[in-house]
Amino acid sequence: MPPVSIVVQTAEHQQQHEIDSKTTGEQLKLMVLKEMGLSQVPLYGLQFEDSKGYLTFVKMHKKVLAHDLKKNAQLSFSFTAQFFPESVNEELNHPTIQRLFWLQIRAAIVADEIYCPPELCVLFAGLALQAMHGDSTPDKVIIPDKELPKRVLDQHGFSLEQWSERILTAWKLQAALPKEQAVMDYLNVAQDLEMYGVTYFEVTNKKGTKLWLGVHNLGMDVYEYSNKVTPRLGFPWVEIRNIRFDNKKFTIKMVAKDAPSFKFYAPRFQINKRILALCVGNHKFYLSRREAQRAGRGFQEDRVAIETKIKRVKEQLLAIRGDLEKVKDKSKATQEDLMYEKQHTNGMDKFATMKRAQAGDLKRRVMEFNDLVDSEA
After folding, report:
1. Looking at the predicted structure, is the pLDDT value of residue 304 above 80?
2. CA distances from 171 to 131, 148, 244, 311 (A)
3. Each residue of 276-295: pLDDT tens digit?
């Protein structure tokens, strides 16, 4: 078989490579990394759209051309994060990967794939411009609909010129901040967003109730179908003993002997294959992180500097929020807006809501999942 030309898209550049019938996923990934001057980047994988139109990742041990690829089309892959760091400071230790990961997270926030409150969206826009251009200058043109989610633009009565002024103000707040630090400041705040690092799958329980299963670096959560922000039930990795699937049915056996198995159903078995791969990979990273913590190999952070930054960010967000509230059309609030506002009014952040979802008897949580009906979800 002659070599096949493929395209690999990173967050910044496009690469061209040639592979043959023997090229594995691992070999292709090494080609991509070599062109960027990198070696190993375990969190990243090669994503592609399969013949049914679903996004999935190349298996590293498998021949690339043996995957369920689209026929008679240019073979295209994306070099993108498959797994997400618990701490960006600890796990993203190369400037190139820091930037690529930031671009991926930023794109997801602007596209509203990761929910972000309006005031933080504006602050992020300022940080993003600092990360891309450095300090603001009069000749820089700001295009609001490239910096903010459409939801935020639609909910507030500002003209594009007025939005540009507010983004510019947020940009000026970052004056003298190095580009690389702007990237990391952005990510350090973004990693605490409720939808950061969660991969969602539409599933049903035995009653046929539509739900979202969210797989992430600390475990898996169940969300009501109308609300991806607040988990209804949570299952941390330490509670899970074994996972497997049979066609469309996915079964999770718990460590607790008295707890029934947690079972759900996906629309097609290929989705269960992806869920399994994500669970196995995330669990592996979870164990290696805990081992590093026990061995004292964790990143030592300057707590005073962190607390100072947190205080500064809170003050900036308060000022931006006050400005936006004056022109906010509350009738255009989304379900995510309402749930986020409710949580934060009650003093609940991402980790508090996660802990609440994991609280209580494990057996009760599994049975509650089994008994959920559409009126509740």
Report:
1. no
2. 10, 13, 48, 18
3. 999 999 999 999 999 998 88
